[in-house]
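Progress against Task 2.4 (sequence-to-structure conversion) is shown through the following example record, which the project officer requested during the mid-term review.
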Amino acid sequence: MSAKRIMIGGAIGHHPIGGSGNAWAFLQYILGFRALGFDTFYVEHLEAKSCWDDQWNVVPFVDSVNARYVAALAQRFGLEGTVALLDEESSAYVGLSHADVQRLARDADVFINMSGRFHVREVLAAARRRMYLDMDPGFTQIWQEQYDVDMNLRGHDVYVTVGPFLGTDKSPLPTGGVQWKHTLPPVVIEEWQTDVAAGSTYTTVADWRGYGAVEWQGVWYGQKAQEFARLIDVPSRVNVPMEICLAIHPDEADRAMLTEHGWRLSEPRARAATPDAYREYIWQSRGEFSAAKHGYVAGRTGWFSDRSACYLAAGRPVILQDTGFSQYLPAGRGLLAFDDPDRAIDAIRMVEADYAAHAAAARAIAREHFDARRVLPHLLELAGL
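Structure tokens generated for the chain above:
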């Protein structure tokens, strides 16, 4: 690999309240590339309407919880001098300035634009190579092709998605006119290894409604709420507690439905307030049990969650609704896939029958398939470096 400097564009600052699972999705790349010895910079710009206080009221950039969150995260992980949160409306910034970012981009061997969130054309143009890294396979392409929404696909040299089957005959979803290469989400193993004893409760972290359903060729592709509804009776049929750290509106009627059927609910404001709190939540879990977005299930892109990779790396078995990932990952021990409630319950019972073996297998799967030391060099190869 000839690359020396990497610049990553993302959306950490866009989710400052209970959004540290989102932050880890970007930190895996930032910390992973740094551990491999690359000069790594993270950049993000923030529009005025997304600058909030602690109660979601719009405030000036300099007074926002977004700015405080990114500054605290940079300090926590020793990223000072390598992170920029830029105000779109003024010259205000956290970390690196607008001018710093422009200057550093000129020496970037590749700009990795995660979900196309970075739009500053002069910065993108300054880098030697530009990679679009799609983190929402199927939805990105449907928004672009069906709804004519500009997903910022234009102007990149290489296009990579975490949907291994997108653009193949295994998935019915569109490509947005792009030839996609494929990767898995990385996890920095050392950040997730733990001696903390596993807890008693299977957990996951979820957004209930997300951004709604989308349609492609007469088929609607929905969110997690639709799939969790199919699993509503699972807690009453197993002997272990089931919990969702759930982003859901306080007035949402489904809250009562979930609790009435035995699901425990916890608050992202507490459990995912910081990257450390999010990691502790996973460490204290027995394993992950989760539905996937209906769009991922019906779209069969093979998507696998970066969150689930963290559970695996922590030695917490993962029981996850199948999106096609069972066709390329060793599902059956440590990682179990299901398609319906009965198979989900069988999977829980299998793990409980030999928990130690499943926990060891979870760690092994993380090392073999998701270790950033494997995934990130491959990503640079896809970039042509």
